[in-house]
Design brief:
Helices cover about 5% and strands about 45% of the residues. The chain has about 160 residues and is mainly beta. The protein folds into two domains: about 1-55, no CATH class; about 55-159, no CATH class.
């Protein structure tokens, strides 16, 4: 896959197995499993790699300047330069919305327990969640400052 401009002129030569729309001046790309690397990276509008393919996955476009990435089975968040802002230490991660990012850890019952990281976690060494990890599932984002949650009914000492 490559990119053309609005006039149909080739801007970036086809070279990716999968490429995605530009967000904040960068686009995610996947090298594909067939080339032996099977990694994800970022390019700028000229096609230059701003982040060489190194992650097992980069999910979705950037929201609030961050995107979830996976490496070695753990999830974290990068910014549009590819800098790791929140290290990969979660079992799941989803987009930031209204200052909160969704992350998950696995319970001893193999359930994903979802929590929210605040903007404070993005910009400081305080990586604690504002909302405790007591949710089995959370919606994909906040709508008018609200997010849908599915709660667990297990007692706290059983998590």
């Amino acid at each position: 896959m490559g990119y053309i401009d609005k006039t149909g002129s080739l801007v970036i030569t086809p070279q990716f197995i999968q490429a995605f729309p530009f967000t904040n001046g960068v686009a995610r790309f996947w090298t594909g499993a067939f080339v032996g690397l099977n990694k994800w990276g970022l390019i700028d509008r000229s096609g230059k790699e701003t982040l060489p393919p190194q992650f097992d996955n980069i999910v979705n476009d950037f929201h609030e300047g961050l995107a979830p990435f996976r490496v070695g089975g753990k999830w974290g968040f990068i910014d549009i330069t590819g800098k790791i802002i929140i290290p990969a230490r979660f079992d799941g991660a989803r987009d930031f919305s209204e200052g909160f990012g969704r992350v998950a850890v696995r319970s001893k019952f193999n359930l994903f327990l979802w929590a929210s990281l605040t903007e404070v976690a993005r910009s400081s060494s305080n990586r604690n969640s504002k909302i405790p990890a007591i949710f089995r599932k959370a919606s994909h984002g906040f709508d008018d400052s609200m997010a849908k949650l599915v709660t667990l009914t297990l007692p706290e000492n059983k998590l």
